[in-house]
Amino acid sequence: MADGSNVAFIGLGVMGYPMAGHLAAGGHAVTVYNRTSAKADAWVAQHGGQAAATPREAAAGADIVFACVGNDDDVRSVALGDDGAFAGMAAGAIFVDHTTASAGLAHELYAITDAGDVGFLDAPVSGGQAGAENGALTVMVGGDTAIFERAKPVIDCYARACELIGGVGSGQLAKMVNQICIAGIVQGLSEAINFGVKADLDMAKVIDVISKGAAQSWQMENRWETMVAGKFDYGFAVDWMRKDLAIILAEGDKNNARLPLTALVDQFYAHVQARGGSRWDTSSLIHLLAND
Hints:
Elements: E1 6-10, H1 16-25, E2 29-33, H2 37-47, E3 50-51, H3 55-59, E4 64-67, H4 72-79, H5 85-88, E5 94-97, H6 103-115, E6 119-122, E7 125-126, H7 128-133, E8 137-143, H8 145-155, E9 159-166, H9 170-198, H10 203-210, H11 218-229, H12 238-255, H13 260-274, H14 285-290
Parallel strand pairs: 1-2, 1-4, 2-3, 4-5, 5-6, 8-9
Antiparallel strand pairs: 6-8, 7-8
Helix pairs in contact: 9-11, 9-12, 9-13, 12-13
């Protein structure tokens, strides 16, 4: 399936738009669907392929149908029903859900697709808008090995790393681990930078040296300058992070995993929202410290 597949991409947001573009650049015939049709038309004008009026029409004849939308309900809205992607998919096709959603949804969709002889992978991504644009996403996948092996060469069009973690739902659970790590790192980085600024340190010099040691992180190297400057009008929105954290905290309640820091950071993000920062980047946690 590596060369010249017929694929569909549903959801042309800040992630899906460039991901679908990499599929077209990789030689695949791409049909796109977006709730706002103007964005689908713009994508076709830029990349070729075609736009469909419904997810079902987009999925018709596709070897793989990719979806990257907002949440569990959004996935259901594009996958299920008379106009949903599942209604248009033929036996043997594969549905790859790149949405960060619940593990429960993955099992729900797997049961439906398996009954219809359609493959399913839950495959949330990490790397943000820059990773999507540069074709350098990390993809965490749950599902059957044979289905994964068929889909991986196509996913590789926009992936730096693509790993099968385990059975259905494992991709979503791995993404939860990823978000737990990020939440803790951003809070620690916010406190550290705020401390350094209040101590009148040259933060450029501080970051230059500590980023070479054990404190190094992606967040440090890519966010410290804008955090010092108090600029957050870009990146991964607080609203979306809180959506992810709600999924994580619910899963933690189910599997008896204690998540005290994650719950605390979620409360901090609620305070950021109250300050009007719903669309600010997640690094805006520092705003609560620098502007208390």
